[in-house]
Amino acid sequence: MSVETNSEPIYLHYLNHLDVQALAMTDAEIVAAVEEGLVAQGRGETTIEPRMHLVPEKDYPGHFNVLRGYIRPLGVAGVKVVGDFYRNYQVGLPSELALLNLFDPKTGVPVAIVDASDITDMRTGAITAIGAKHLARRNSKILGHIGARGTSYWNVRLLDSIFDFDEIRVHSRRPESRNAFAATLERDFGKKIVVTEDWESCVRGADIVVEASRLEKPEPVLKTEWIKKGACVIPYGTMSAVELSLTDIMDKMVMDDWGQAKAGPFGALRAHVDSGRLSEKTLHAELGQIVAGLKPGRESDEETNLFWHRGLSLSDIALGAAMLAKAKKMGLGQQLRFR
């Protein structure tokens, strides 16, 4: 029999999808929130656990990712559960749907529940853009982007907000998806988007290469020989799409969190870790260390650099906390009684 020690009701803040959209988070707000989490991580002011996976049924084309973390400067802990079901387009749903739960780290009291589907896309784009900001040439003018899923839009949007590309190339497996993606980008950016028919014409000679493909099994379709010297390559597909030799040409290899490198069977550089090509010895830094000024990013135009991000709970929590603060100021969301 439990003993009640406090009769005061406990409420939590709920932000649904419409609330998150109504916040109209700006590019600068998104990047600033994610950078705040990265700086805290770089300074050792966070706790982050490796992601966990749940596969409901082998016959279902997808799985759940469970991400957990704590950011001391923000005074908030969080757990995000995100589904990754790559055939959801067949039933008119996004491939990734998520919930973020925020907690008081001192008491464990739930603080908020947030529709994190947009957060997942936004923070992924922010991490991609921040990584390129520190590891790509400052005068990068050609972007080659593989993939047209939800995170892809924010990759391109936030990258372009930093680099103002002269040429943006996109490719994805299905013509209808890449054409629709390009049309959305052209509408929102007022720029001509180059839709390519294959991987090579998208990637070869690009200053920044982002690989966000949706392969059903690992396949080395992105060839190392297509990467020009001085480029920045950012692969983060769930299934590896790069050759083992990709890491051989890199001057610097950076991750969002080394603890995530061996978390689960998935990841763009899974085979590179397993074979020892990417290790604690060959890893230059975690991105948070660079953002916090503890380790250098790009140091010359000649460097060819790689940034692998697996997705950090810290980014979800930092952006979720920023959204919650803005929502309270704007009077958005619902108060739900917890107990």
TrEMBL record:
**Which E.C. number(s) belong to this protein?**
4.3.1.28
Annotated GO MF terms: lyase activity
- What InterPro entries does the entry give? NAD(P)-bd_dom_sf, ODC_Mu_crystall, ODC_N
Q: Output a single Gene Ontology CC term carried by this record.
A: cytoplasm
Q: What class of enzyme is it?
A: lyase
Work out whether the entry's keyword set contains Lyase: yes
Please provide the record's keywords in A-Z order: Lyase
Q: Does the keyword Lyase apply?
A: yes
Under which name does UniProt file this protein?
L-lysine cyclodeaminase
| Organism of derivation | Variovorax paradoxus
